[in-house]
Amino acid sequence: MTLALASQADFAPAARRRLWIERVTGLGFALPAFILLLLTILIPLAVLLWLSLTNYEFGGVDMDWVGLMNFQKALADPIIRRSLVNTLLYVAIVVPGGVFGALLIAVLVHRRKRTRSFYEVVYFLPVTSTLIAMATVWQFLLHPSLGPVNGLLKWLGFAPVAFLSEPSTALATLAVIGIWQLIGFNMILFLAGLTAIPRDLYEAADIDGCASGIDRFLTITWPLLGPTTMFVLVTTMITAFKIFDTVAVMTRGGPVGSTEVLLYNIYLEGFQYFHTGYAAALTFIFLAFILVFSAVQTFALDKKVHY
Known about the structure:
The chain crosses the membrane at residues 26-53, 88-109, 121-141, 170-197, 217-241, 278-301. The protein is mainly α. The chain has 13 helices and no strands. It has helices at residues 2-52, 69-76, 78-110, 116-128, 131-141, 148-155, 167-195, 199-207, 213-224, 226-241, 245-251, 262-272, 276-302. Helix 12 (262-272) runs antiparallel to helix 13 (276-302). The longest helix is centred in the N-terminal third of the chain and has 51 residues, at 2-52.
């Protein structure tokens, strides 16, 4: 009995020491990731929040604490409200087009044998290209008098269209370019999801009398693509909200402010007008919109997704 108690007394400190070593080792493995998170996300966000509460201007030597005045100014600014509406309209066009267009192409390409690799490369090329360089190409393609697109319209008997110079068509044109850039990457994701679906399910569906392609898509393919669709939907929405390159290169917010988007206005306020504090407040509003929309999409779709 005495030996048992002594062995238990010796074992308790050893177990605590081993537990302490495991905890320290775990913290040591997590420390580099935490430091990286701190340096790249948490500290910049804290600095951004601090700047948004001041009237700091880039290059200035002093600043004043203004509290929530920058946020109040942003909510009352008609230019910011217009850019927010333009951003939401752009997202409303790009997200459905980028997701369902990629899904359609993926379904059509998936069953091909010899030409599948060719179509994958062709549709993925816009993803690998520099958008600023391709924006210049699009400017030429859509030129009212020299562009081949308007040349085709004239040949078909239609009047030429100033795609980037008319307020009624400029934003929709940029949205089409955004879909063109996103659709290849989304197609690859959907192809990966389609490849992961077991073929046995389709064979069982045929036995049960589900021979129509549409029926098999609605009962097997679409439900099993739920996780992929949710990921594609969220990432496409975030990318659409970050529209900047094509606006900066092709329209600069025009014509008549019809393509002014929130991120471009942040760039103007921060790097053209040097209103750093105000630009920081706009950035927080931008991040809040992305966070809210992503959270709503994730929680709304997660209940309907079959894992």
